[in-house]
Design brief:
Helix content is about 30%, strand content about 10%. By secondary structure, it is of the alpha+beta class. It is globular, with a radius of gyration of 14 Å.
Length: about 140
C-alpha cells in the first residue's frame, strides 16, 4: 500500500510523512501511479510519456533488476553508470536533503523509493532533452 495519493491534483501524504521522499522503501513498488516527484523538472504533460517508458522498461516495477545488465528500477537506468550521476543531478534541487541524496549513492537504483526514482526520471528526462536515454528504433512513447 502506498502512503501517498494524489487527490484532485494535490499530493496527500499519510500521517507521519512530511515529504514523499520520506516514504519507506518497503512500500508497494509495482504499478503505475502519478509521479510522487512534482519538483523543478516535473511537468504534467510528460506523465503519459513516463508511463509509456515505465511500461516498456519494467512493466511498472520499481524493483526491476535486469539479469543481463546493471539496468535497475522502473526506468531501467544502468546502475553502474547512472547511480552517482543521478545523485549529482538531484542535489541542486534537494540541498535541504543532501545527506539523503548522498546516501542513495550506496543503494542500487531499484532499491530507491518511488519518489527518488520518479525524481531521477525527471532530472534525466530534462523536459524532453534527455529522451535519447530511452530511444528505441521504431518505438516512440
Amino acid at each position: 500500500m502506498i502512503a501517498a495519493v494524489v487527490l484532485s491534483g494535490v499530493l496527500a501524504l499519510a500521517p507521519g510523512y512530511a515529504h514523499p521522499a520520506d516514504m519507506p522503501d518497503a512500500q508497494d513498488m509495482r504499478g503505475f501511479e502519478p509521479s510522487l516527484y512534482q519538483g523543478k523538472w516535473y511537468d504534467k504533460k510528460w506523465e503519459s510519456t513516463r508511463k509509456c517508458i515505465m511500461k516498456r522498461e519494467s512493466r511498472f516495477d520499481y524493483r526491476a533488476a535486469n539479469k543481463r545488465s546493471s539496468a535497475r528500477g522502473a526506468y531501467q537506468f544502468l546502475d553502474s553508470q547512472w547511480r552517482v550521476s543521478l545523485t549529482h543531478m538531484l542535489m541542486p534541487e534537494h540541498k535541504d536533503r543532501k545527506k539523503e541524496v548522498k546516501a542513495l549513492r550506496k543503494k542500487p537504483i531499484h532499491k530507491w523509493n518511488r519518489y527518488w526514482q520518479d525524481a531521477a526520471f525527471y532530472v534525466a528526462w530534462q523536459r524532453g532533452k534527455g529522451a535519447n536515454h530511452w530511444f528505441y528504433q521504431g518505438k516512440v512513447c
